[in-house]
Protein 1
Amino acid sequence: MKVEKIRDLTLVSIDNQNKMVISCDSCGSIGLKSGDVFKVDPFYVGRFTARVALLEVLCSGANIVCITNAICNEMNPTGKQIIKGIKEELKLLDLDDVVLTGSTEENFITTSTGLGVTVIGIAKEDKIKVNNIDCSCILVSIGIPKVGNEIDLDNDIQIASYKTLDKLLNTQGILEIVPVGSKGIMYECEQLAINNGLNLQIYENSNIDLYKSAGPATVLVAAVKDNCLKDIKDIENLNVIGRLIKGEK
């Protein structure tokens, strides 16, 4: 069995045709408890923590089969609200029937909210979009980097949506897609270049902050073949930010 760690993904070869794709995310001190730094309903803690791990696996081209929640608080009321949020995020993906399992902390009283989420998916070996770039291509970002109270929790069209991701996954010429979180757009672009053995060129006139945290994956970065950019030009908040270049310095 071959196990690889690539970016925030763990890839496990199941057989010659299938790979297991695993991702996780954590969240701490965000909630309604006395020790929480950022006050927000635990429902959104569940939603957005799940979103980060779900996007990592979905961007690889995998189908979700299981999601786990490690809740570092009591089931009632915090855990119930977190689980409700996770289920709402799954509902947005039409994944109501995906296995959701987890654990809560019932032995001790907690003063800060904590959550860990793990998502497991299965991808076809010949369809997986990880380290899949074999030519020079365009880099685009989709969405606006946002974090904390900058995010409209229920209706923010500036956040890259699952509908947008679905369009990217079903557009020919999209070579690789990665969600952007706290490390910013530039970091993810650099990782794409390193992991694919390519050189990175960032355009100086980019009109988006490449270093700002994108919080709960409010931005996607996609590597696009030159002749396919026209097919995604209509996506909202799309910015052409640079290129990945093969065999040049």
Protein 2
Amino acid sequence: MTGLLRAFAFLPYGVVARIGTGIGALLYRIPSARRRVVHTNLKLCFPDMSDDARERLARAHFCHVIRSYVERGPQWFGNAQALARLVEVESAIDLTDMEGQPTIFVGFHFVGIEAGCMMYSTRHPVASLYTPMSNLLLDAMAKRQRGRFGTEMIPRSDSVRRALRVLRDGKPVMLAADMDFGLRDSVFVPFFGVPACTLTSVSRMAKAGNARVVPFVTEVLPDYRGYKLTIFEALKDFPSEDVAVDARRITEFLETQVRRIPDQYYWVHKRFKHRPAGEAGVY
């Protein structure tokens, strides 16, 4: 796999992206557990959508997901100049002066998140929370390549203590808290009207580190033109005294972005894996 990803880094981006899209289209035709997860999530979140529309959305999403895996080649093995050419940046905050205010960049699992985070790390010091992979060789490669421009990689098991130290040292922390990591330190808040097990780590860390919380989204641009990293204004009056309220605010922000680019959100993840007490599983 490493050799193939390295090879993709030497191909023109448009070629790599088209290869990924083509593979995704082929794989979607094969019944699989992941395809069922996509359809389950879409049916739960968009119950009023027609079957045909949901099918088109699922197919487009599957192509995006496989394409994102293939594009790990230029992201993990391309140089900083190549990444800069691929990702345009629009920021509502000043990224050149980050030491005066501890900052938590909260991202979301859109298919372009890797490209945005990698490009940001070529320009500015940052630490990133990550979830170790079950495949040790792949995990070691991912950690090495994601951190090759100086990003401090922090595993979730050690996240709070190290992240607070990083914040105190004036370095921003990037994290994503929109996946179901279990009931511990989580609350159920509605995601498109469906109770979703949602981490409270963002507000807890912001309070402990006296940090502002700045959302960001990386989207895939049409016509194989690369990506756009959008960094928004810091959330106002955040955190509050209620972690559930904070989790709901972040989820509402996410819902707005998903409605804008629904085919790019990570529907292959079992977002509703854990259910409130008494509710049956959905997968």
Protein 3
Amino acid sequence: MNSEKGILVLGATGPAGICLLRELLHRGHHAIAYVRNPGKIPLELASSPKLEVIPGELTESKKLASAISKCTAVISFLGSSGSKVDDVKLFASYYSDYIFPTMRAYSVQRIYAMGTISIRRPEDQPSALRWLAIAIFGRVYPKMLATMLEIEKVFDTKADNLEWLLFRIASIPGKSDETSWRKDREDGDTFVGWVAESGWSFSQKRAALARWLVDAVEGKADTWIGKMPAVSKLAGSKANLE
């Protein structure tokens, strides 16, 4: 059993989660994946000595504690499947009732969690594109929209004494296989700021988002702790083709 402390990934079997696992391992981090179905993790990742896979449900307190006790920070994609659940408060309750208390119990302070631009912050600028996207999204996936607003609420009200960052994304295209990940992780620089500020765009490849998240756990986004910045590809930036 690997005793090295690592980065815990929640939602590790989705495309963004798999890209994140690839990025963590690529950069030499010990990664911990707490997953419902370990079989969804690609074999080349599951066989890495730097990856520890812990099967379990978020409501299984002892198993979750085992995973959190081994980490220095948590990165969470929970909520991305919000359109598939009936209870729009479900993912928010995972944070407030299970993840946050367990982090506090094991003195794990840092969590980076996913939100979407359906979450509004006072610093955001007006954007017709954002308005249209929320209108369409809310009509097609009303439960996922409501889920994200509950996640916003729980970070605003229940994450006290934790060092949290809720990154808000719009479109994150891209595949999670190794070839696509290697190409997409070089897809331009990352914008971090407020919606519709200069440099904000509507899209960022999943692998490039994963690259930024690992930058963040390495200390390059500390000024955004306790905030909910929009994260996207920096408008006008070019892919690194070297």
Protein 4
Amino acid sequence: MSRLPLTIASWDYDRVRPLLDGRVKVEGCDVNYLTMPVEECFERAYFHGEFEVAEIGFSPFLIALSRGPTPYVALPIFLSRMFRHSAVYVRADRGIESPADLAGKTIGVPEYQMSAVMWFRGYLQDEFGIKAADINWVQAGLENPGRRDKFPLNLPEGFPLVARNDVTLSQLLADGAIDGVMSARAPSCLIDGHPKVRRLFPDYRAVEQAYFRKTGIFPIMHALGIRRDIHEKHPWLGASLYKAYLQAKRIADADLVEVTALKIGLPWVSAEYEATQALMGADFWSYGLNDANRRTLAAMARYSYEQGLATRLIDVDEMFANGISETRV
């Protein structure tokens, strides 16, 4: 029987490199693995359907799922997870000393729908009572003008969001035309040392650790998706991918604790790994639908609905291809 030719696209994470270099195989498949920045991957996957399997932004996925069949069927393989307190950049001359001071301010975002921004808006509402409509939003490209939504927005009439295609968020922030930016990438004006641009949380690590202690949530940004036509034609593929990605992540995890000769180029990587496990548990970056991931996904679904993204509240059990989490490795 011939093997299924399969093109997979994602960013070049440590947890996928065993698939890239052939140490881990996908059962029944001949894989052509393409690595690219996530923005390019999302654009080509959502708008052009170029890849049989691709990394997908989970916030746009939930938006699509709330409205009907999705272009990609999601697997509980969470390629990107990240606390996003570090992703907020503000003017130092606007009296913004805490998240509570963001109410009434004008904040730029590359996409209103993006996972990083959705997570921080949820934090603002849960911890400070600031709703999405309490902030004036400007959507624009971070460093290049123009960026389009993957799905139509579902915001109420009069919602304070303006799209700009003539300027970048970094320039608006540097010029003082907006009060802050929420972005997965740091704006160049911060990197270049603009004297009036800083992070909202200079010690974001401590703030993020405190957030985890309180909530038990490790935010999910991206998952892996199988293009719907491929999933329907080859229903076995999801289990093969889940097993392969879990094996690859285990190899990456082992590299973090190798002390004979460090495989990761940080002198105290083992100490950091041990400290993270002490706070978050042994399998802190887990795949599948364990209790911790269900808590995180349920919060994400609630935020998406409350913020006018998803058109209905989605249950965790309808998010993923059936039976994948029960696959044994």
